[in-house]
Amino acid sequence: MKWTFVIWLAAQGTVVVAQEKPPTPVNEQQLEMQAEREEGITEDDSQWQQLEYLQQHPINLNTATENELKNLRLLTDLQISNLLLYRSLLGPLLQVHELQAVPAWDVPTIKRLLPYIVVSDPKNIIEKLGERFRQGEQTLLLRLAQTVNTSGEAAKATDSYLGSAAAVLVRYKYNYKNLLQFGITGDKDAGEQFFKGTQKNGFDFYSFHFFARKLGIIQSLAIGDFTIGFGQGLIQWQGMGFKKSAEVLSIKRQGATLQPYNSAGEYNFHRGIGVTLQKKNIQFTAFGSYRKLNTNLITDSLLNSPGYISSIITTGYHRTMAELNDRNNVPCITTGAALKLANNRSHIGVNAVQYLLSNPLQPGGQVYDQFAINGRNWSNYSVDYSYTFRNMHVYGEVAVDKLLNRAMIHGLLAGLDPKVDLAIVYRSINNRYQSLFSNAFTENSLPVNENGFYAGLSIKPVAGWKLDVYMDVFRFPWLKYQVNAPTEGHEYLIQLNYTPNKYLELYTRFRQETKSMNETDSLPGISPVVPVTRLNWRTHVSYRLNKTVELRSRVETVWYARNSKQAETGFLFYTEGHVKPAFKPFFFSARIQYIETDGYNSRLYAFENTVLYNFSIPPLFNKAFRYVVNVNYRLTRSSVMQRPRKINCLLSFSIAQTLYPAHSAVETTTTLIDAYNRLDAKLQIILKRR
């Protein structure tokens, strides 16, 4: 009976296997909106590495666990729960077409997954420990990036930096089917010293990780650097976590609690040991971490006191003596644990994390900082849950901090109809609630001082059309940085996608956001709070001429006003081409772009492909032309030792330059260099041995 059903699906759903080009491993719109919201993106390419690895070693959907499916970050929990339930009721999938019969799964979702999945007979193969160390894939990445300034004035302005202008990244990684991986990363930022001065050991930042999965009762074991994700991020979430975007259903934090860390970011991770144990439906995670943080440490030599921490520095830059004085100056011990009881439909978990610093945190004298963390130790506790019933998935987390200040997030994902999906998030975070290393679905960058309600709809009325809309209303009960009163705001987005075939994809999007900030032109001593409105309209089109060439173009406008005054407008246009000839070792892309805005407030953002595992989303403002070129060449050769092996070499080179016809070559201040007409170049070599 099941074979007859699968044959019918294959006849009806051949569109699923028409995938010719693997999708981008990262969602560009999500990253662009994240960069705009936080004025920058934390460097974390873990997901990109994971998905690129899965293109060569796809997941078998007949044996994939819940955590493996969550780590893809391409599926909602409703889709994951329905797949696990479908598999338990009807047995293993026979063909990929059968996924169309799983509730809440649709053709676009399946097409997005195709490069990373297979459907095959489940086999009970015992992985020998020796094979894990011998049969894995080894990857060596070397990247050199530098901003080239030909102006003598620019070179003079950079003299305050102790090191060279080159940024260097070296990363070695061993991976055996995601069951065993280990590696080391070394990173030097531009302006930091290298094998001299204060960095006689080479790189400014080193990271090592060893991570093993499925060792009997040990589900995961981490030694070295790792990340922790509890619940919905109210007390701890160190991996990438997107907030509002055109992906209106991507509202839930998901992924395994314990994850390896091998990115170049120097702040958002732990260093020590962590373990996840699992026995049937019970899972327990515990970890301990010791690392030194970069802080602004205030001392008084007259009082001979150890000093206090005025702020924690997250940038990772150590280019000047002042930045070096703040480097690794405060040890931090972090411990935590989580206990979870789960089945295919539901889970409930209890989480705890504690911090002990060598020096106390002490908030500044500003009124908005009144409730910040105070003292040497801090702790957070939470309970999180989820439950799936038919086409409805509810989830949430309730947390308290050391002083019993409360925070909560509750969400709903529901399939109202095969063509309509709904997402809802309610959050209530006390203005006194505080946490470290947290990242929840909030308007603020951190889960603090916020109440809000988010609702999103994704509608697919007919084949080829998709409408995504969301609204979010929020309120901040206490003062914020540059906001001298309790305020409220709202945000709306509507996006219409049109994909009539595999060659054309077009979307148009309108977004409106209103928040409040202090008036900048007020009288001395008086800073009234005024509404700030930002409107965006974007149209983007991608067209595949053939299997080799894809063209993309975008037009975007922005209107910005503070208290209906000081209005600024902005405009962006770009067109680019991606060329990837079949059976050829090279592929490249090129973009030309024009930007014109009235100032920084009307800036625009556009995702740029550079070298593999790396991207750029610079703020674009003033009147400028910009071009980006990315060239890749792949070398492959086979070697025969005890068994056939493949050695791949991918050479990548990218350049990007912004030309400002109305500005001089360089403008400098005591702490900032704005080099106009500068050129950013990156060269990367990736060696892989399979």
Characterize the structure shown.
With 690 residues, the protein is mainly β. It has a domain at 1-41 and 58-127. It has nine helices and 34 strands. The strands form five sheets. The chain has a 24-stranded antiparallel beta barrel. It is globular, with a radius of gyration of 26 Å. The two termini are 41 Å apart. Mean pLDDT is 86; it is low at 3-26, 152-157, 638-642 and 665-675.
Q: Report the portion of residues in β strands.
A: over 45%
The radius of gyration over CA amounts to 26 Å
Structural class: mainly beta
The low-pLDDT segments are: 3-26, 152-157, 638-642, 665-675
Question: Which word captures the global form?
Answer: globular
Mean pLDDT: 86
What's the helical proportion of residues? 10-25%
Distinct helical segment count: 9
**Through-space gap between termini:** 41 Å
Largest sheet: 24 strands, antiparallel, barrel
Give the number of DSSP strands. 34
Protein name: Helix-hairpin-helix DNA-binding motif class 1 domain-containing protein
Organism: Niastella yeongjuensis
InterPro entries: RuvA_2-like (IPR010994)
